């Protein structure tokens, strides 16, 4: 990461935003809470709660529970992710576990094994009726087979 120390005028966009970086040579255990953007390039086991964006860098290995606005994964995560906006799994990313987010994208080359829940949809509301109709069709079919057998004298 580069810092521009020669700038005379502060960047008005970046003034209010916090950026946290956890480096490669560190291992964390526990529960952490962040505001703003967080980039993790280390090993972490526990819970991460970020109000903004969590960037899981290429060398990061995270095991546990993640709650954030946006999660961008280029490293390895094993656990449960809940994002209020979206989860992006980039090409070198590995995600094993659960994803709960309204938007989930997986780049070609990434690996995902687990469950994805993007919330309710209108189609889900229509499913029970469709299943009920299949059941009725099966019952109707067996009645028809019984009727056919009795007519043929079997």
Tally of distinct domains: 2
The arrangement of helices and strands along the chain is: EEEEEEEEEEH
Largest sheet: 10 strands, parallel
Category from helices, strands and their pairing = alpha/beta
Write up what this structure looks like.
This protein has 154 residues and is α/β, with parallel strands linked by helices. The protein has 2 domains: 19-117, no CATH class; 121-154. The protein contains 1 helix and 10 strands. Strands 1, 2, 3, 4, 5, 6, 7, 8, 9 and 10 form a 10-stranded parallel beta sheet that branches. The longest helix has 31 residues, at 122-152. The model is unreliable at 1-16 (pLDDT under 50).
Question: Helix and strand layout, with pairings?
Answer:
Layout: E1 19-22, E2 27-34, E3 37-40, E4 43-50, E5 53-56, E6 61-73, E7 76-89, E8 94-100, E9 104-106, E10 111-117, H1 122-152
Parallel strand pairs: 1-3, 2-4, 3-5, 4-6, 5-6, 6-7, 7-8, 7-9, 8-10
In short:
By secondary structure, the protein is α/β, with parallel strands linked by helices. Helices cover 20% and strands 47% of the residues.
Key structural traits:
154 residues, alpha/beta, 2 domains, 10-stranded parallel sheet, 1 helix, elongated
């Amino acid at each position: 990461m580069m810092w521009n120390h020669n700038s005379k005028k502060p960047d008005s966009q970046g003034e209010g935003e916090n950026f946290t970086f956890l480096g490669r040579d560190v291992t964390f255990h526990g529960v952490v809470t962040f505001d703003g953007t967080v980039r993790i390039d280390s090993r972490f086991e526990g819970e991460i709660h970020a109000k903004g964006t969590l960037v899981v860098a290429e060398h990061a290995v995270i095991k546990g529970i993640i709650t954030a606005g946006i999660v961008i994964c280029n490293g390895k995560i094993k656990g449960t992710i809940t994002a209020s906006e979206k989860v992006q799994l980039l090409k070198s990313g590995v995600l094993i576990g659960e994803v709960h987010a309204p938007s989930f994208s997986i780049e070609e080359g990434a690996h995902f094994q687990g469950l994805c829940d993007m919330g309710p949809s209108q189609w889900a509301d229509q499913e029970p009726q469709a299943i009920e109709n299949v059941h009725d069709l099966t019952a109707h079919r067996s009645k028809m087979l019984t009727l056919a057998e009795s007519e043929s004298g079997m």
